[in-house]
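ENTRY TYPE: paired fold submission
RECORD: A
CONTENT: sequence, then structure tokens
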Amino acid sequence: MGLDFSKLLTKDRSIALDSTVFIYALNEHEHFPDAAKLLSAVKEGLNTAMTSVMTLLEVAVHPYKTGSAQLVEEHRKFISGNGKIRIVDVSQAVALKAAELRVKYHLKTPDAIHLATAIEANCSLFFTADKDFQTKISEIIIIHIEPTPKA
């Protein structure tokens, strides 16, 4: 079943991608095939996509653990979608919005930063596979990438 990306990814929409999307796609996680499908659709589409620099931090941990500088660079290129996905730094405005969101929704700091980055970048959709975003967020539409049922 999965998500219908043709309806969600329109050229007039700016979207944000949580780190979980990249992590599941990079690991080719069998229960989250929509993560890889989403990234493929973004790379082929006309819409604007972004992610927080926090994604780079979270995705680079494994390559650094394995001591592979080459893998770190490959992951960075993967996250940027070879230029189709903008990696946004944390600004003072993002930090303050993240603090506000932490208080309002009881989010962890990394989650609040991801969300604040998306809101400050005027994104209309935030894609995630993180269950911490089950809370109703009024500032942006959260699209959950759900796991496929286990056989």
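RECORD: B
CONTENT: sequence, then structure tokens
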Amino acid sequence: MEERQQYTEEEIRERLNQCGLKATPQRVRVYEAMCELGHASADAVFHQLGDGQGKMTLATVYNVLESLTDAGLLIRRPSFSSKMFFDVHPDAHCHIYQQDTLSMTDFRDEVLQRSVEERIRAQLPPGLQLDRVEIQILCHAHES
């Protein structure tokens, strides 16, 4: 089961400041939405924020997501549908990508993640360094 981040507005402001970002209203709202969503595209965050509280443009949402990513609060997770997801858990972990709903969730298996990373490191050609391993498990709903 995916764990969601739960932060108060003050905790979000503090996290932003610790990463060297000014806690603007836009950054606070976008990070809060990401914490609720876990994994989301810029479009999904934009729709999550479409609640009438000083609506942001999609470009602003994307720019804020990029600044949060650059600060290390989020990480980009490409999907097989070519849609870019942002993830509130920047640590290395596996994902389930559900092709019928175009959604992504965490799949925590540290042994699998570590084992794959170790095998790849051991077999990398000379001169290459492993940046990270993205394990994405493709699934779809099964009718019973």
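NOTES ON RECORD B: Residues 110-123 form the longest helix (14 residues). The first strand starts at residue 39 and ends at 40.
STATUS: closed
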